[in-house]
Design goal:
Layout: E1 20-22, E2 25-27, E3 37-45, E4 66-68, E5 76-82, E6 87-95, E7 103-108, H1 109-115, E8 122-128, H2 131-136, H3 138-141, E9 179-187, H4 190-203, E10 211-216, E11 219-227, H5 230-244, E12 249-253
Parallel strand pairs: 3-7, 4-6
Antiparallel strand pairs: 1-2, 3-8, 4-7, 5-6, 5-8, 9-11, 9-12, 10-11
């Protein structure tokens, strides 16, 4: 999924940019095109809010490159950096939140995935892209090139998943994360595991970001995950069974 492409959008003083109060705290959103930099904690929101209206009136899409911020103008574009790994993304701010102490931005599922922040709340750096920087293209010149790894298994909400991810090369993480995994095949030879991984990445692009190959008890296991609970993993197994003529098995790693 590519980053949000910044463009100049009108900032209206009312609507989503008018002052508001949450839990006894008053917020004064920026209603002008001003630069803004901030460091703090980022969180993310996903399936529970998918399809619900955002503060901008647009439906929330957990697979789009968007974010919620308490005071940045809506709409706005911001660069978000994870200092722990150097990854950077550009998101479109179209919602309000988060309203928890210390948190400064709520990322969409996909935005958090690209920054490797799905494990929980983590420090980030946020910079608003001004209209002038967007018009002149200066925002591109100040963004250092960063590589985004594709071999990190992460949780996802498959029933709602759009086809957003390109096929990725077979990966073998050092250790699988805890949680529920969908096993798609087990092989004694590496080429068999690689072929299945490549076929699924090509035929089921929505599953590609979750695929991994693990070496376990003299077998190479092609698995997708992790998932938070068995029910979620079972839904994925059913979807794969129908689409790929396989017989997946749900396993739990503790």
């Amino acid at each position: 999924m590519p980053d949000a492409e910044p463009r100049v959008e009108t900032i209206r003083p009312r609507g989503a940019n008018k002052p508001y109060e949450i839990a006894g705290q008053r917020y004064e959103p920026m209603a002008a095109d001003l630069p803004y930099r901030e460091r703090g904690l980022a969180s993310w929101y996903g399936r529970k809010f998918h399809g619900r209206p955002t503060s901008s009136g647009e439906p929330y899409d957990m697979y789009a490159m968007t974010a919620a911020h308490p005071t940045l103008p809506i709409p706005s574009y911001a660069r978000v950096r994870n200092p722990a790994n150097g990854r950077e993304i550009v998101v479109r701010v179209n919602d309000r939140g988060p309203f928890h102490g210390g948190r400064i931005i709520d990322l969409s599922y996909t935005a958090a995935l690209k920054l490797d922040l799905l494990r929980g709340v983590a420090p980030v750096e946020v910079e608003r892209l001004t209209h002038d920087a967007i018009r002149t293209g200066a925002w591109r010149q100040t963004a250092p090139a960063t590589a985004v790894a594709t071999d990190v298994p992460t949780a996802i909400t498959p029933p709602l998943l759009a086809d957003i991810a390109p096929a990725v090369e077979a990966a073998q993480p050092a250790a699988p994360a805890r949680g529920f995994w969908v096993q798609l095949g087990a092989f004694r030879q590496r080429d068999g595991a690689d072929r299945l991984h490549q076929r699924l990445s090509s035929d089921l692009s929505w599953l590609a970001p979750l695929l991994a190959i693990f070496s376990d008890r003299d077998l190479l296991r092609v698995q997708a995950g992790p998932y938070a609970d068995r029910a979620e993993a079972s839904l994925v197994a059913q979807r794969v069974r129908a689409a790929a003529s396989l017989t997946p098995v749900v396993i739990e790693r503790r």
